[in-house]
Amino acid sequence: MKTEVLQPTEENIARAAEVIKRGGLVAYPTETVYGLGADVFNAEAIKAVYEAKQRSLSKPLIVCVSDVDMMKRVVKNFTPAAKTLIDRFMPGALTVVLDKAEGIPSEVTSGNDNIAVRIPDNDIALKLIRAAGTPICAPSANTSARPSPTLAKHVVDDLDGRVEVILDGGQSKLGIESTVVDVRNVPKILRSGGVTRESIEAVLGVTVETERKEGDFNHSSYSPRAEVMFSAFYDGMHRTIIDKYDELIKGGFNPVIMCLSSRKNFYGARHTYLMGNSYEEYAHNLFLTLRKADDEGYTAILAEGVPPEGIGSTLINRLIKSSGGQII
Ligand code: TXA
Ligand code: MG
To answer: How far is CA 311 from CA 51, 186, 249, 282, 314, in A?
Structure first.
């Protein structure tokens, strides 16, 4: 199959929607990361999504809809907490898990009776969904275990020849995935993401637990080819990072440090990637930088730690996963 990378003109979005309608796969931009879309009511198309991503059938797919009306086609009933969160955070980087409606192929939800759904805050995505006239799935458009794509180029790197169309929407606004919250009973965060736990708690007026998964340390996701290691967050962390960097050089590695821009001076002449001036910018640049390190021939990535609050919690979650838990 030949993959076409298209600019998101009205005409090209209409073409991409036709691909979805006849059961094909389209990668498209969202505000979090690029998604891999197919008609959620077409079981064959959904199976092709798992195949293209080389993803285990036991890992369910998020579904993207254009509005709350369309959400009713995939969800059986809304709980009060769901209504509150949808009202406050959608369109946006939040995904809710609810009981699933009839008629959704079991492949979408890996046989579960619940479904994860969100409304993306991206005009191209919304236009695509409206033109296709159907909810579309939205797993990240990378092959399994790779960092999520935040540029059309990343999708090409992973899925060239496996999707018909890639809509190029430039760099993802957030660069980190949505927060997945199970709102069927007591709200619980299943995956941290762009919407912080603190802001969810503020809206719901209760404390919300984040589920810890076994698997988080088994090096199965967000992995570039380079070895990733990260530091805990504390005043002298640059010294630990420098010691490790110098040790890696002696060991024949070609390391690079990911640090906040303001902290570059701590590292002298050592190679650094500047991750911006805030933890939001660090998150925005994370996946892109992991891939860039590979492209530029680095073999080890040393990431500065961040405080475990707000978007920092999400960053730590991704750093744990991409490093397989290698904390220095
Ligand atoms: O920001 C995002 O959510 C991006 C954009 C493209 O929408 N998508 C994304 O999808 O990150 P994916 O497949 O890479 O990650 C989806 C996560 C997985 O951890 C999956 O297990 C969980 O959501 N998930 C999906 N459906 C679920 C369900 N019914 N119940 C619980 N977790 C679910
Ligand atoms: Mg993913």
So the answer is: 32, 22, 32, 9, 5
Sign of CA dihedral 225, 295, 194, 282: positive
For residues 100-130, b (16+ Cβ closer than 10 Å) or e, as one string?
A: beeebeebbbeeeebbbbbbbbbebbbbbbe
Distances (CA, A) of 29 to 8, 56, 174: 10, 23, 11
Q: Which token pair is 56?
A: 């285990």
131 CB under 6 A from ligand 1?
A: no
Residues 6+ away with beta carbon under 8 Å from 236: none
Q: Count CB neighbours of 214 within 10 A.
A: 6
Which ligand minimizes its atom distance to the CA of 178?
1
Q: Which two tokens stand for residue 119?
A: 């409304």
pLDDT tens-digit readout, 158-215: 999 999 999 999 999 999 999 999 999 999 999 999 999 999 999 999 999 999 876 6
Measure the CA–CA gap between 300 and 293, rounded to whole angstroms. 8
Alpha carbon of 210 to ligand 1 centroid (Å): 15
- What is the rounded distance in angstroms from the CA atom of residue 28 to the CA atom of residue 35? 5
Q: Is 116 in the pocket of ligand 1 (CB under 6 A)?
A: yes
Structure tokens of 139? Answer: 């797993």
Please tell me whether the overall predicted TM-score, pTM, comes out greater than 0.70 for this model: yes
Query: How far apart are alpha carbons 24 and 209 in whole angstroms?
Result: 38
Residue type, 325: G
Closest by Cα among 224, 261, 286 to 32 = 286
